[in-house]
Amino acid sequence: MTSDLTLTGVTKSFADFTAVDDLDLTIPAGEFFALLGPSGCGKTTTLRMIAGLEEPTVGTIHLGDLDITHAKPYKRPVNTVFQNYALFPHLDIYENVAFGLRRRRIKDVKKQVDDALELVELGHLARRKPAQLSGGQQQRIALARAIVNRPDVLLLDEPLGALDLKLRRQMQLELKRIQTEVGLTFVHVTHDQEEAMTMADRVAVMNLGKIEQLGTPQELYETPRSTFVANFLGQSNLVEGTITASEADVVALDVQGRGVTIPGDRCMAVGGAGEPILLGVRPEKLKLYADGDPAAAGENVLPGGVVTDVSYLGVSTQYLVRMPWGQTLTVFVQNLVAGAGFAVGAGVEVGWQPVNSFGLRGDAT
Ligand code: ATP
Fold first, then answer.
1. Residue 47 CA, closest ligand 1 atom number
2. Which residues does the UniProt record annotate as the domain ABC transporter (predicted)?
3. Does the domain formed by 5-228 have CATH 3.40.50.300?
4. Do 5-228 and 235-361 show the same overall fold?
């Protein structure tokens, strides 16, 4: 039976530098959780405190009712898989996986090692040495070696960072399958937003030692609460406007003389009439219409755009559209009909459904 992992008021300072700043976080047992953020945001330090490799300066870490804040790394039911797999080169794969069990004098080693190797689908390589395995296979063995110890929590520190893109994508799905099968809590550190979104049930986006926003991948992508999150997860078009009416269920705003609306629950603390607001729309949520096309009616529409660049990307085409106020919007249009689309220089209107937009405080940074 695994337990919830709870960090309460956790701060880590190095001399006068605060790497992790008053973090509160609960990760339910069995969740695949990702800590996502740019280099230096404090995600590895957070992971190292959970592992027991760093001690918090302030705050506590609990697993269920057990206070593990100051417990030695090997005394807590937590295992870590690092980017450099650190397999023992002189031991074969079987013995690498068996190592922790033998050290703890666990009985029935064979069955547990066989099960772990089967889980990562590498049972047939049990008698090879690590050097005879590919990078992806070595990473799966490192995973088997950690999982065989049945920790309550498995920590993954950029575990796929050393793999090439194709293998990384494949391993992302593998990791997700394995986590679902074993039901352990996984805490995964990464700076790769696609990786976090592909695998995790919930993601905490970190910035400057704090959690900027925590939610499911869909929540973070569809309703980011800050420009940092909007820009860190995918691309956003952020357009300045002024609020004309702010109700609970809908916020009306003026963008360069045009009225548009955003559903109230997609606006973050944006203030009242007369205040600035940032309208956010993801590139694939925008549609392009020829100037004056009546099909645009009924949507939010901003007219007067001119296509300045067209890039064919296979699945979609990327259009850059220069708006009358000088801003360039990015629009992804799915290539449903071969040969269709707009050319550079075409006059276009940019439209979108209100539910496909979000609002941020106009003075947000
Ligand atoms: P990366 O993706 O580059 O590993 P990160 O988000 O994991 O970044 P951390 O490794 O947690 O970031 O580091 C957060 C900050 O704390 C960084 O500015 C780093 O320089 C600083 N830091 C980490 N460990 C120490 C240490 N032992 N002494 C001093 N400063 C440290």
1. 11
2. 5-233
3. yes
4. no
**213 vs 208: CA distance, rounded Å:** 12
CB count within 10 Å of CB 14 equals: 11
Q: How do residues 255-294 score in pLDDT, each as one tens digit? A: 999 999 999 999 987 888 999 999 999 999 999 999 888 8
Confirm if 108 and 148 have CB atoms less than 8 A apart: no
Nearest CA to ligand 1 atom 21: 19
- The pTM of this model reads 0.89
- Domain positions in the chain are 5-228, 235-361
CA of 208 to the centre of ligand 1 (A): 10
**Which residues are CB-neighbours of 74 under 8 A, at least 6 positions away?**
none
43 lines ligand 1 (CB under 6 A): yes
Helix (H, G, I), strand (E, B) or coil at 97: helix
**pLDDT per residue as tens digits for the range 4-28:** 999 999 999 999 999 999 999 999 9
Whether the CB-CB separation of 248 and 281 falls below 8 Å is answered with: no
State which of 23, 43, 208 you would mutate to test the pocket of ligand 1, scoring each by most atoms of that ligand within 8 A of its C-beta: 43
Q: Are 20 and 46 in contact (CB under 8 A)?
A: yes
Q: Can you read off the two tokens belonging to residue 361?
A: 């405080």
CATH class held by domain 235-361: mainly beta
Structure token digits, residue 259: 């009225």
Task: Report residue 342 as tokens.
Answer: 């707009």
Q: Answer yes or no: is the C-beta of 209 below 6 A from any ligand 1 atom.
A: no
What the block records as the tokens of 364 is: 């947000």
**More reliable by pLDDT, 56 or 83:** 56
Closest by alpha carbon to 358, among 206, 257, 215?
Answer: 215
Q: Could you tell me if 203 and 214 are in contact, meaning their C-beta atoms sit under 8 angstroms apart?
A: yes
